[in-house]
Structure formats: structure tokens, C-alpha cells
Write a structure and sequence with these properties.
It is a single chain. The chain is mainly beta. The protein is built from one helix and 20 strands. The protein has a single domain (32-411), classed as Porin, CATH 2.40.160. It has one helix spanning 2-23; strands at 31-45, 74-78, 83-89, 97-105, 120-129, 133-141, 167-178, 183-192, 207-208, 213-229, 236-252, 258-273, 284-295, 307-308, 315-316, 318-329, 334-345, 356-370, 375-389, 398-411. A 16-stranded antiparallel β-barrel has the order 1-3-4-5-6-7-8-10-11-12-13-16-17-18-19-20. Strands 14-15 form a two-stranded antiparallel sheet.
């Protein structure tokens, strides 16, 4: 009897251990916050995109008319774009506030079964912030191309004039210069890896030894026109105009010739209808646009190819990008977005490969509605078209697709 009573007491104490442990909150030695969102996507594609069908193709190429894929449809659900991030604020250093962020989603292997997606590192960086200066190191958005298409499509226009991907290892310095209370200049200079550990090197069989890229931005901002919503309406932005650019190089496998990687462009964000108080989205509207020229920059999809010309004397594949969008909020909850983007080639006569991408463009329109501070629903129509050069005899010179999307978010 005593043995039974003792066993019962021990069992009760053991069962209480998890409860006692949970009574003490798990904390970091620094100020740690957690956030992210749950996202469920539905996509209907009039063309088969394959295992990653909830996304538009990473190459930008739409299957040519008459091909097998062009005659197949897709109907897809996925929750892999759900996201989780951790932010930490640490001790000051020489007058600078220190912080870090790690962000992940579940798109590490889009070919895996739905119940076994893999974590993917999106962002992972530390930062030191003084009053007007920031030093950031780790993995962050590519410095080239500040425009991000506000699409339900997770590609965010990367292959159609908005090469905001990949997120790459880098170190950057941002210096702000205040002219007065309303006007300022932001200077960004950084070194970054174009290949993201080779995962995004679209020229693995052609180029090698890609050098670390130097990239930068010069942006002028003014509060003269107030502020209006930017990407997804999640933040406000004042009038911003400026320049951006990148330079690096790589070698071509066949000849060991060093070929430049380069790009430069202009960017503008204009609040057309400003927020009444800098926070409210009701009756606000913004216009945003970008244009660039680039060469040998397939690693971030700024160009569709890497090198062109004869094998003995290859040169950078030259391309351009154009994009623009309008975001309008008739009410605080309802957001409407429409946009256009295009990526094309320059000097088509340099391209000798069959069926090369002359251009790819997209038109998109979407609507979002916030049911409350956490839940958002969105719907989108997207049209994409790819024009091909040096077309194989008897085949189409273009591919087109119509895409319809519905998404539900829970932000936390």
C-alpha cells in the first residue's frame, strides 16, 4: 500500500514538471519579438508550371503555344509561403542601437510532399544603427532594384522588370543626410554575393568564379507630398526618387574570359493622395516605377541570359527592365493594386541560341480586404507573355498564361 502511494506521488510530481516549466516564460537574454503570417494560396494556371505551380516561373519563360505544358491546366493549394521571423534588440555599441532579424518560410523544396516542406532562410542579418548611419551584415534583399511588385504572386515581379531577388549575403552601409526637416538623401553602398551559395546561379554550366558584387543606391526623399501606402499597404512612404546600380564579373567556362556583370537604373515613388495623418490608408494612392539596363545579371533575373556572341569571344547578355504600379485604398480595409512589368533583350542579333527569351511581360490587378487587424483576404488576376527569338521551325514564337489567385493571411 505504501509502495502504491509513493509511486502515485512520484508520478504526480513527474506529470507536473512540464506544467511547472511552462509556467516560466521562455526568454532571450535580449529583447526578442516574434512575428510572421500564415498564408494559404490557391492558384489556377492556364499553363502547367510544374511542381512550383503556385509561383510564376523563376526563369520568366512561359511555355510556348502548342507545347505539352501550354495545353495543360493547374489548380493548386499551398501554405508554404507562410512566414516566421524573430527580431532581437541587443546592447548598445559605441552609441549605436544593435539588432538582428532571422526570417524563414517553408519553400525550401517545392517538389516535396505538402506535409513535409523544408525551412528556407529568407533573411538573417545583424545591424548597428546610429542616428544617421546603419551598418548591416548578413543575408538581406539584393541592393539592386528597390521596386517590389505588390502581387499575390510570391515572385513579386522579379522576372518582369523588378529583380528584387535573390536575398543574398552582404555587408552594406546606409548614410542618411538631412537637408532640413522635410528633405533628406540616403546613400547605400554594399558588397554582396550574387550566387547565394550557388543556389541562384542560373549560369552554372556557362559561368564560374563570379566575383563579389559592389552595389549601391542614392535616394532623395521629401515629405512635401505627405506619405502613401507602399508594398501590400503595410507601411507608408514619402516621395522618393533616385538611382541604383551594381558591378561585378565572372568567367566563362569555355574560354576563361572575364565578363562584366553590371546594371544601373532609376526609381520613383510618388504619393498621389496622401494619408491624412501619416497612418490612415483611407483615400490614399501611390504610383511607383522603375527602369534599368543590365548585362550578365541572370543571377538575380535582371537579364534572361548570361553571355552571348561567339563561343571564342563571349560578351554580357544585355537586357532592360520596366515596371510600374498604382496602389489605391478607398477605405482603410480595402486595397486595390494594378501594375505592369517587362524584361527584354538588347541587340537581339547577338543572340545565337534557339528559342531565346526576347521579352517577358506581365499585367496584374489584385484586391485585398482586411477583416480585422490579423486576417486579410486577397484575389488577383495576372497575365504573362513571353516572346521568343530564333524560333525553332514549326513552333510558336510566344507563350501566354492567364492566372487567377485567392489568398488568405493571418498576421501575427
Amino acid at each position: 500500500m505504501k509502495k502504491s502511494i509513493s509511486s502515485s506521488i512520484i508520478a504526480a510530481m513527474l506529470l507536473s514538471v512540464p506544467a511547472m516549466a511552462l509556467a516560466e516564460p521562455v526568454t532571450s537574454k535580449f529583447d526578442l519579438t516574434v512575428g510572421g503570417f500564415v498564408k494559404l494560396d490557391y492558384a489556377y494556371n492556364s499553363v502547367n508550371f510544374g511542381n512550383s505551380g503556385s509561383l510564376t516561373p523563376g526563369s520568366g519563360a512561359i511555355a510556348k503555344g502548342g507545347s505539352t505544358a501550354a495545353n495543360q491546366e493547374q489548380s493548386i493549394f499551398t501554405a508554404r509561403q507562410s512566414r516566421l521571423w524573430f527580431k532581437a534588440k541587443g546592447p548598445d555599441f559605441m552609441g549605436a542601437k544593435t539588432s538582428s532579424l532571422i526570417e524563414t518560410d517553408f519553400y525550401g523544396d517545392p517538389s516535396a510532399a505538402a506535409e513535409s516542406p523544408q525551412l528556407r532562410m529568407r533573411l538573417a542579418y545583424g545591424a548597428l544603427d546610429w542616428k544617421d548611419t546603419q551598418v548591416l551584415f548578413g543575408q538581406n534583399w539584393d541592393i539592386f532594384g528597390p521596386f517590389v511588385a505588390s502581387t499575390v504572386d510570391f515572385r513579386s515581379g522579379a522576372t518582369t522588370g523588378s529583380p528584387n531577388n535573390p536575398r543574398v549575403p552582404q555587408v552594406r552601409v546606409t548614410q542618411k543626410i538631412d537637408f532640413n526637416a522635410d528633405n533628406s538623401l540616403s546613400l547605400v553602398a554594399g558588397l554582396q554575393d550574387p550566387n547565394q551559395d550557388a543556389n541562384n546561379n542560373q549560369a552554372a554550366a556557362t559561368n564560374y568564379g563570379a566575383a563579389v558584387n559592389a552595389a549601391g543606391q542614392i535616394m532623395f526623399s521629401s515629405k512635401a507630398l505627405g506619405a502613401a501606402p507602399t508594398y501590400f499597404g503595410l507601411s507608408m512612404k514619402p516621395l522618393t526618387v533616385g538611382l541604383f546600380g551594381l558591378y561585378g564579373n565572372s568567367k566563362v567556362s569555355a574560354t576563361n574570359k572575364t565578363v562584366d556583370s553590371y546594371g544601373a537604373g532609376v526609381y520613383a515613388f510618388v504619393p498621389v493622395l496622401k494619408s491624412s495623418d501619416g497612418k490612415s490608408r483611407a483615400m490614399t494612392m501611390s504610383l511607383e516605377g522603375q527602369a534599368y539596363e543590365a548585362g550578365n545579371m541572370a543571377f538575380n533575373t535582371a537579364t534572361a541570359g548570361t553571355v552571348v556572341g561567339p563561343a571564342a569571344d563571349p560578351n554580357p547578355a544585355k537586357g532592360y527592365g520596366l515596371c510600374a504600379q498604382a496602389i489605391f485604398y478607398p477605405t482603410q480595409e480595402l486595397g486595390l493594386t494594378a501594375g505592369y512589368g517587362k524584361r527584354g533583350t538588347i541587340t537581339n542579333s547577338d543572340y545565337t541560341a534557339a528559342d531565346f527569351q526576347k521579352s517577358t511581360y506581365q499585367l496584374y490587378a489584385n484586391a485585398s480586404y482586411d477583416l480585422n487587424a490579423a486576417v486579410r483576404v486577397m484575389t488577383e488576376y495576372q497575365y504573362m507573355e513571353t516572346q521568343y527569338g530564333n524560333v525553332t521551325a514549326g513552333t510558336s514564337n510566344k507563350g501566354t498564361v492567364n492566372i487567377f489567385r485567392v489568398a488568405a493571411f493571418y498576421f501575427f
